[in-house]
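Revision sheet: structure tokens.
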Amino acid sequence: MGNRLSKIYTRTGDDGSTGLGDGSRVAKDSLRVGAYGTVDELNSTIGMVLASDGVADDVREALTQVQHDLFDLGGELCIPGMAMVHDEDIERLEKVLDAFNDPLPPLKDFILPGGGMAASCCHLARTVCRRAEREVIGLGRVEDVRPQAQRYLNRLSDLLFVLCRVLARASGHGEVLWNHERRRKPQA
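Predicted:
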């Protein structure tokens, strides 16, 4: 690891700019900073899932690996031209997703966020992941972004959805199903 911070504040961002990993400076509200900032937020919400009670070891192992991947992805987005997330990472995610999804019953209804604290935190992570994906897509329209970044986030949101189901079932709360008939008026 290169530079270590001995002093947390530098005052260099007081003008509304921040330094990228390649040394260039951009506005703090640039699309690039927004994209890697949301990836950081996603990593934090996954930390909330991991801090919840009742998370099984296999889920914990999968999400810990995801946190490391997201740190790499944030680095890739912070350093233009850097490649830190690869096809192998996406393929690993797909295998993990399949392993968690295969034992689940087919989905017949929409699921509402809920099903216990861990599942609820995972739903939050899933929605932040979708936002990160949208921001990476937006960044890719104006700057070079490797397609692996977008594909990783797309696959991760699918994995998080499946883990929401796994966590809700494991908690004893079960999945919270959307009641599409609640608005139908009884027949007279």
